[in-house]
Amino acid sequence: RKIDLNSSLLQHVIERKHEVLCILREKIITTQKCTISEHIQAEEKISGVMGCGTKIVKVSVSENGSMMKDSSVILEIPPATTIAYSVIELFIKHSGQF
Fold first, then answer.
1. What sections of the sequence does the record tag as coiled-coil (predicted)?
2. Tens digits of per-residue pLDDT, 42-70?
């Protein structure tokens, strides 16, 4: 099988190097509002320069040089939303074969 390399969808994916084309195998459709949350807590030793990411909510530093980072991410998904559950990345050769 071959795919048309001149299609606008494929050209869009080719232009953006970090995007991929996938085949959807399984999906979930929400029937009511859902909340997905992630809570990460990490402890690191401080020595020298300290860097913080954008998701950091709370940072506390103790006297012995250890640092506690606390971050949370909460997503609300509305009803009737389709979520890709299982996908296969589609690899396309220069000839258009996949």
1. none
2. 555 555 555 444 444 454 445 555 655 66
The full set of domain ranges for the chain reads 8-89
pTM for this predicted structure:
0.45
Task: Please give the DSSP secondary-structure letter assigned to residue 4.
Answer: -
The answer for residues whose C-beta is within 8 angstroms of residue 89's C-beta and 6 or more apart is: 20, 21, 22
Is the separation of the CB atoms in 83 and 32 below 8 Å?
Answer: no
From the CB of residue 57, how many other CB atoms can be counted at a distance below 10 Å?
11
Tokens found for residue 56: 């950091």
- Whether residue 77 contacts residue 33, with contact meaning beta carbons closer than 8 Å, is answered with yes
Cβ pair 88, 23 in contact under 8 A = yes
Q: 3-class secondary structure for 14-74?
A: HHCCCCCCEEEEEEEECCCCEEEEEEEEEEEECCCCCCCCCCEEEEEECCCCEEEEEEEEE
